[in-house]
């Protein structure tokens, strides 16, 4: 029993060691990522925002202000467009995730039952109102007239079977059968 406890302790210690190693690795990765983002930000700012040099005269200062206002307006328009795209995309994402949730889980599929259904009803259920093909199989069969044979005439003439049995019962019935045989 103590052997099992030692194994469990060793497994737990190993698990803890792996967990701490993974956390340390994750921390270093996050730091690297933050540093890379900062470098990317500095490069972007250096490219898009040159250092400001203030001119001495009033007219040049007004020109600079007009340029800055035009740039602010264009950046604001870009920001607005990007914001609208983001809202639209997030809405689509939300709708799709809701559909996925609906399809995946919370609805339980009911147990299927056998249903007697004609071929017409089945096609109507599958195709909806588009169904125009008639699957009446009896309509395609040939019509055949029956020829009256003597056996069928005899069967029709006999009528009720109870009467026939009563007639043939007893000695008279046997006598009739014997006479009919002759």
UniProtKB/TrEMBL annotation:
Record-linked InterPro entries: Troponin, Troponin_I, Troponin_sf
GO CC, alphabetical: troponin complex
Recorded coiled-coil stretches: 27-106
UniProt superkingdom: Eukaryota
SUPFAM superfamilies membership: Troponin coil-coiled subunits (SSF90250)
Assigned keywords, A-Z: Acetylation, Actin-binding, Coiled coil, Muscle protein
Any one GO MF annotation of this record: actin binding
UniProt record, GO biological process: cardiac muscle contraction; skeletal muscle contraction
Pfam families xrefs: Troponin
PANTHER family on file: TROPONIN I, TROPONIN I, FAST SKELETAL MUSCLE
Subunit structure: Binds to actin and tropomyosin.
Function, as annotated: Troponin I is the inhibitory subunit of troponin, the thin filament regulatory complex which confers calcium-sensitivity to striated muscle actomyosin ATPase activity.
Family per record: Belongs to the troponin I family.
Protein name per Swiss-Prot or TrEMBL: Troponin I, fast skeletal muscle
Organism, as annotated: Platysteira castanea
Gene: Tnni2
